[in-house]
Write a structure and sequence with these properties.
about 350 residues, alpha+beta, four-stranded antiparallel sheet, about 30% helix
Length: about 350
């Protein structure tokens, strides 16, 4: 892991975690961390809010001396995520007309029921509900953004900011009714897949916007390259220089088959695989028609070109087959999640809204 590589290179390693359901120690994601704080939150949320995560991150930075030893800190915010319960003040800039009653916190079960209506029953959000959900989601992003800003301001005040490599990204976005999708883990459209990747280099050594399509597999190569550390053999992904100068590549994304969704209708209960190539995006299912979109001409993914371009679909399908053959399988999914079982953390995942 990144933490193991950096710890071996002499870095202090710490993490403060919002999503204790998927990032708990039982998944062994604490490998390489000297400090790994993945405590629960308090109802109605089952995760700690952004202000608490920032407080804990600043506490860890304050309690360590870094002049003689560099540090790696992983900060995991969970707020832009159901249940959408932002501070009312954060929503006002997006929807000043919402009443106090509309801004009161809701339990996870409330949003879970709404997600079942949209994703499973295929009942679209009406205009008022879509406005309400979007405003609350935007408010959560704004509140988290403010807490990230508070952490960066602390780093500037303590002299840590300039020489620190800072990366901001997300594990997923959120459907807000588009394509009859609300939340995430259901479909592989851009609202769920298109996430930011912001890299602040040490000492502002470069600024600008890169247009090359990136992937989370690029993060570790970027970090190791910027820090001047050796890159493990066979590591996927590209450095910033490679993103600038290497030929365009295909980028892959996958939603694994999930036994917890086995009772859902197709294609929600299926493995879903995506390939990006230039402006084209291909979505493959084991037992549902494929999808092909031209994201430049059709950024909202409204027109499926799969039936019009069967030769392109065939080429993408072959690409996915080759990719799977060339990829190292890390574990046997069936052994880990049998038909009659579920992960040990099943109760945590239900509380977080990932399972019923």
């Amino acid at each position: 892991t990144m933490a193991e590589i950096l710890r071996e290179a002499g870095y202090r390693t710490g993490a403060t975690i919002g999503n204790h359901g998927y990032l708990g120690r039982e998944f062994q994601l604490d490998q390489g961390f000297e400090h790994y704080d993945a405590r629960r939150g308090s109802p109605p949320e089952w995760y700690r809010k952004a202000n608490v995560i920032t407080d804990e991150a600043m506490r860890w930075l304050t309690n360590h001396e870094f002049q003689a030893r560099p540090f790696f800190l992983f900060v995991n915010y969970m707020d832009p995520h159901h249940p959408y319960n932002p501070p009312p003040s954060a929503v006002a800039q997006f929807a000043p007309d919402l009443s106090a009653a509309q801004l009161t916190p809701r339990e996870e079960a409330f949003f879970r029921e709404m997600m079942m209506e949209v994703n499973v029953s295929q009942e679209p959000l009406d205009e008022d509900r879509a406005y309400w959900v979007t405003a609350r989601y935007d408010g959560e992003i704004a509140a988290m953004d403010g807490q990230i800003g508070r952490l960066l301001a602390y780093m500037q005040a303590t002299g840590l900011y300039d020489e620190t490599l800072i990366i901001v990204t997300s594990d997923h976005g959120e459907g807000l009714g588009e394509h009859l999708s609300l939340g995430h883990c259901f479909r592989m459209h851009e609202p769920a897949l298109a996430v930011p990747l912001i890299v602040k280099l040490p000492n502002r050594s470069a600024v600008g916007v890169r247009t090359a399509r990136t992937s989370h597999v690029d993060i570790l190569p970027i970090v190791l390259d910027v820090l001047g550390l050796d890159r493990p053999q066979g590591l996927a992904g590209r450095t910033l220089d490679e993103l600038d100068n290497a030929p365009p590549r295909e980028v892959f994304a996958t939603k694994a088959y999930d036994h917890r969704m086995r009772s859902f209708p197709r294609p929600l209960n299926q493995l879903q695989s995506v390939v990006y190539r230039d402006d084209l995006k291909f979505v493959e299912y084991p037992a549902a028609p494929p999808e092909l979109y031209d994201l430049d001409a059709d950024p909202l993914e409204l027109t499926n070109l799969a039936t019009e371009r069967p030769e392109v679909v065939g080429d993408f399908a072959a690409t996915l087959k080759n990719h799977r053959s060339a990829s190292q399988r890390l574990y046997d999914l069936e052994a880990a999640f049998g038909e009659d079982g579920e992960p040990a953390a099943g109760e945590d995942l239900r509380n977080l809204g990932y399972a019923q």
